[in-house]
Amino acid sequence: MNPLSTKDGGRRWLTTVGTKMPRTVVAVDDRVTADEAFRLAASGTGLAWYGDFPGARNLLAALSRRCGTAAGKPFQEQRNQRSRRARILGRLLVPLDPGHVLPLRRGPDVREACTEVYGPSETASLVSLRELLGVVGAHEWRVKGVEIPALGARIHPHHGVFSPVRGEYVDLVARTPLPTKELAFDIGTGTGVLAAVLARRGVERVVATDNEPRALACARENFERLGCTGTETLEADVFPPGRAPLIVCNPPWLPARAHTPLERAVYDPGSRMLKAFLDRLPRHLEPGGEAWLILSDLAELLGLRRREELLDAFERSGLEVLGREDIRPRHRRADAKEVTSLWRLTTRAAPVPD
Q1: Residue 27 host element (H or E)
Q2: Taking the model in full, what pTM does it have?
């Protein structure tokens, strides 16, 4: 093991998750033991791998085993341990030559996948192997797509945009009776899957918002693939200007801190998006219109939120519940007790004066 040479030490750091390049980076190859690699990574040292590519993957797996398991621990302890695990595994690095060429023996061609995420590159760089594998995997999902039965077609997620692999929330939007076919807002659209379902159901105009440019680019590409001519995208924190007779929102389900951009689709500290949606909803929902709020009760099962807190939030925002559609998740990793609900909300009518 040796410190990186001046040439290699000048490599540009690539990341999509905001992590900083380790202050100390040493060059390693197949001669490093897993125990020594773990000791270095756990202490904050980056390991730039210069062996063959399968050896890098084997070392990553060995480091993962040494991180232990968080299974069976309380939720916050699980999150803390997974965060530490991500930091340690993220310190196994691989080099990329100009043009995102992976110079390791038996390494895959990662040029297209990296260009989609990082843009063109004319300089040498270093990237976490764990992140690189995620980038390659996301590229494969983007090419292959995810089959959506409610659409009879595939949605193609981009890197960093939550994939609709849990389809039960899509089924809820596909089966709940529409209050209108004139206009709908889809808040936090992500891949655009819910907006596409509304358009396929005959809603003439759907405005899809998100605060992530990569999500909006993903949604636009999916709308074009599907021929959803009545859909449009808008970068917004929550709502677009104006009112609509139907507003759909599938916010992050768990009020906890996200560790990566992708996790922001699931974790939302203090339920910021949920609260913003409910607080501002009366100003954007047409009188007599419906808002469809889609939430799993997983936060309640984990003790992160009580059902009463959600109902109190409806009350404070001047909303009443018209009805609720429930569905059990089909995903193999879902909690057996979990229920996903579509809450049909409307603004509470003002009292008639005497």
Answers
A1: strand 25-28
A2: 0.89
